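DM between two lab members

TW: hey, do you still have the Potassium-transporting ATPase KdpC subunit entry open?
JB: yeah, one sec
JB: this one, 202 aa:
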Amino acid sequence: MTKMVKSLAPKALAFLLLITLLCGVIYPLFVTGISQLLFPKQANGSIIEINGTKYGSELLAQQFTGNQYMWGRVMNLDTKTFQSKDGKTLLYATPSNLSPASDEYKKLIAGRVAKIKAADPDKANTPIPEDLVTCSGSGLDPHISPAAADYQISRIAKARGISADKVHEIVLQYTNRKLFGIFGEDTVNVLQVNLALDGILK
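TW: and the structure you got?
JB:
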């Protein structure tokens, strides 16, 4: 038995090294190279860069609070818990993990509803799309529904002194349709809309 183990050990070690080389070095380099060649923007984080300035990623939410901007999903910001030694934020949004049946959650929703109604009193009696008062599982969802975007058009137009049609045109420009018209849902990218509103994206 000992002789068999001794004879198999070199082969097992060689096989382990071969698999490590294939799966840990060659395959990752191959996939990285292909992605950089065929999908360089996506492989590097889908960064929105204009004239050398990086404004963020299409795939990560940013918080906007001014009435002149489109608001995205609720973000539970945490700039203290997740920090590096030099004070830089490593993770700035997390899901709440609160039960929808809890009193604390109900108070949070009520507060968010009140804030949205106060920002646009003309729509006080209009139902608010739920994605404007709830956070996503990641806390970093960059998209909202077309209904949530449309709800904000009048507020944005009034704050900027432009027509609602102009804001609606921008929203449509940055609306992502269902894949093949079947899979997923229509979504609006909040960061892209706000950059377009500011005249950064054309």
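TW: got it. The chain has one domain: 47-197. The chain has a mean pLDDT of 84.
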